[in-house]
Amino acid sequence: MLTPVAQASRLPRKPGFALPLRGTLTDETTGLGPVGIPTSFARNTEIYAEGEPAGHVYKVVSGVIRISKLLPDGRRQISAFHTAGDMFGFEVDDVHHASAEAVVAVKVVAYKWQSLLAAGAHSMSLVRDLLNLTMIGLRHTQDHLLLLGRKNALERVAAFLIEMAERTNAGPVLELAMARHDIADYLGLTLETVSRMFAELKELGAIKLEGARRVHLLDPERLASMST
Amino acid sequence: MLTPVAQASRLPRKPGFALPLRGTLTDETTGLGPVGIPTSFARNTEIYAEGEPAGHVYKVVSGVIRISKLLPDGRRQISAFHTAGDMFGFEVDDVHHASAEAVVAVKVVAYKWQSLLAAGAHSMSLVRDLLNLTMIGLRHTQDHLLLLGRKNALERVAAFLIEMAERTNAGPVLELAMARHDIADYLGLTLETVSRMFAELKELGAIKLEGARRVHLLDPERLASMST
DNA sequence: CGGGATATTGACTCTTATCAATGCCCGTGG
DNA sequence: CCACGGGCATTGATAAGAGTCAATATCCCG
């Protein structure tokens, strides 16, 4: 597990913190001053596990992480992927109720939750930021409920591609950081079905694949309309 | 839609506000003084709709409400049911991204969001409460993701009964406020499948039905274990 | 260049959805 | 108080979508 924060060291100022309310917690707004050395995690390693005591929240500096929950028999549901600027690890009580793992090599900065709250005592805006971040997470999760509860396989995969494209608001070429298995566990499908839906989208001329991970969105409009 | 708050009138002090962090916002903690006359809504009427401007949050005084989202073709996903003491209607921006409707006749109290935040400026604990309520909602929603993404029909229905039993922490007899259709839209199933799973749980000796709405939980332990 | 992990594709199964018929409450009015 | 009617719920037969199992194929990565 991640060792607590503390050291003096400035995390490198990154561009791309401008997305609405993502990454609001800068060194300045926390009032915490230096927040700690970014910690690195290798691909597929655990940042924290379900059931573990929770004392920190984290901000992704680089890479991609996944938040997931397991059933006793191993069935897994990924509730979110987080990328640079995103914060994760918020918990009501002192226990993590989901686990966080690195999808690819990542760097994250840890904030002591108690310190944030203490800092919040002097800074209304900090607590407001935490509230906003949590509400954004809630909205995303509720949208995902609709996907899992009511959308078919093709719609789910189309929605996934749109979501990933939006978050890396780059051009029409999308680099997927995660394997089919992770996509499947995010969308509540099997990896075979995900693969078939990619094939179908290709058939339909909505996407083009260049290897398994590079996806050209040939017709984002149509893709969006398919994600109903 | 609901008309804004304001009037002098004390809402009746109800017992049962003791559940951890449900209904933390009392007249006292808000510092708002009298918060308004509870507003009534008849069964199946709308409290607010998806897309509508959001300016209030609500606390259920009595009855049950459902939060839902619709796809253009009418498919519906219910993300939560709320009962006495629960708060709902939190939004990041100024638009409701889901709708709220009365499942049975309900009374709710509306709080102006801006007033809460203004009051929060003097009361750290109020904002903390809002944060906690939101995090609790987030946790519930993530648990529900696991259900929708990875559990089979029988597990979903068993989990539903357990959830409902826990929240009305009464004895072994459960009064369901909602119709099969609502249960189905909460669990991501059809009403027929829900009905069949009730039948199967009956077969298995886990429950007994007395009419469609009254459920005896004959073996809550087993039911819980079936909800994996 | 080789090999292991990852992905695709195929054949078949199984769960749940769909369509349809019947049954059961419960409230209303005669 | 009883009968009727309409919404709900149950049950059945069948279909469809996604899962499972299995056999390649492809892609990285060393």
Write the layout of secondary structure elements.
Two copies of one chain form a homodimer.
Chain A: H1 27-30, E1 39-41, E2 46-48, E3 56-62, E4 65-70, E5 76-82, E6 87-88, E7 99-102, E8 106-112, H2 113-120, H3 124-150, H4 153-167, E9 173-175, H5 180-187, H6 191-203, E10 207-210, E11 214-217, H7 220-226
Antiparallel strand pairs in A: 1-8, 2-7, 3-6, 3-8, 4-5, 4-7, 9-11, 10-11
Helix pairs in contact in A: 2-3, 4-6, 4-7, 5-6
The structure holds a DNA duplex (30 and 30 nucleotides).
Describe this structure in words.
2 copies of one chain form a homodimer. Chain A is of the alpha+beta class. In chain A, 36% of the residues lie in helices and 22% in strands. Chain A has 7 helices and 11 strands. Chain A has helices at 27-30, 113-120, 124-150, 153-167, 180-187, 191-203, 220-226, and strands at 39-41, 46-48, 56-62, 65-70, 76-82, 87-88, 99-102, 106-112, 173-175, 207-210, 214-217. A 4-stranded antiparallel β-sheet of chain A has the order 1-8-3-6. In chain A, strands 2-7-4-5 form a 4-stranded antiparallel β-sheet. In chain A, strands 9-11-10 form a 3-stranded antiparallel β-sheet. In chain A, a hairpin with a 5-residue loop joins β4 and β5. In chain A, α2 crosses α3 and α4 (153-167) packs across α6 (191-203). Chain A is globular. The N and C termini of chain A lie far apart (40 Å). The model of chain A is unreliable at 1-23 (pLDDT under 50). Chain A binds a DNA duplex (30 and 30 nucleotides) through α6.
